[in-house]
Design a protein that fits this description.
Layout lengths: L11 H9 L5 E2 H11 L8 H13 L3 E7 L5 E7 L1 H25 L3
Antiparallel strand pairs: 1-3, 2-3
Helix pairs in contact: 1-2
Length: 110
């Protein structure tokens, strides 16, 4: 299975979303922009991938949502991380840091 340039590895989108809402509620567009910005403009998440993922995270109980007004005063659904979502995020951070450390060691010249 080959990944295209800037394509996310399976399972990373959930982590990126949880990180994006970790500091406070955000609507879908703000989540996409947070991921784009925090990744140094490497990860562009499209609506077709984001909204199903948001729904999936709600079903898992990791996100909660409520309607509100966006910065442009438009009706928008705002997502916030839940206590189980914070627990999941902590575990995922630990796993990804360990994976990144191991990959860095393997990829470094001997």
């Amino acid at each position: 299975m080959a990944l295209k340039e800037n394509e996310l590895l399976p399972g990373t989108l959930d982590l990126l979303i949880l990180i994006a809402v970790e500091t406070g509620p955000a609507h879908g567009y703000a989540i996409m922009e947070a991921i784009w910005s925090r990744s140094g403009e490497l990860f562009r998440v499209e609506e077709g991938a984001l909204y199903p993922a948001l729904h999936r995270l709600q079903l898992k109980g990791w996100l909660a949502a409520e309607w509100g007004a966006s910065e442009a005063n438009r009706k928008a659904k705002f997502y916030r991380i839940t206590a189980p979502g914070r627990k999941q995020l902590a575990g995922e951070r630990t796993r990804w840091r360990r994976l990144a450390l191991g990959m860095d060691r393997v990829l470094s010249p001997v």
